[in-house]
Amino acid sequence: MADYCDHAPGHPFHGPYHDREYGFPVSDDTALFERLILEINQAGLSWLTVLKKRTAFQTAFEGFDIDRIAAYGDTERERLLSDAGIIRNRLKVDATIHNAKVVQSLQAEYGSFEAWLNAHHPLPLDEWLKLFKRTFRFTGREIVNEFLMSTGYLPGAHRDDCPVHARILASGPAWACQENDPRSQGI
């Protein structure tokens, strides 16, 4: 997404995301879950649409509280589907609820969503994609790629000459630690 480094800086929505979030390591399960759900909701739409609706998503999904969302039933589903502030797509809403339950099971087995990611790291994108498709709902190639790039598991969020890239490297993203690992190269 090299052109993102050209047009995002200074933009009221893209700028803060580009400068402070995109590509930086994420360790908090709630933040990881939010990022996954935002990427799922971006499918078929622009990232700007999602960023503009981000606050509404945070409100509608109660701060992306995994346990609360996992407990959602028909009443909450209908509330979400009638909320004009978010993307009202039944498949995406259902995937969010389902994926919250999946994250709960990963937390029970691995201790956290982050620990599950770390247990499988590093993998080449095709292997990550297979893993996500087996584990979650509504996770195609672009969703998985963007989720992993945005959270520091895969490189490519910024150009090497982007000033943010140096800050990301200094924060120790998982992909920077894997560059010499043959598993990350598909070998």
TrEMBL record:
Molecular function per GO: DNA-3-methyladenine glycosylase activity; metal ion binding
Gene Ontology annotations of biological process type: base-excision repair
Protein name: DNA-3-methyladenine glycosylase
Organism taxonomic ancestry: Bacteria, Pseudomonadati, Pseudomonadota, Gammaproteobacteria, Oceanospirillales
Signal sequence annotation: none
Residues annotated for Zn(2+) binding in this entry: 5, 18
Entry keywords, A to Z: Metal-binding, Zinc
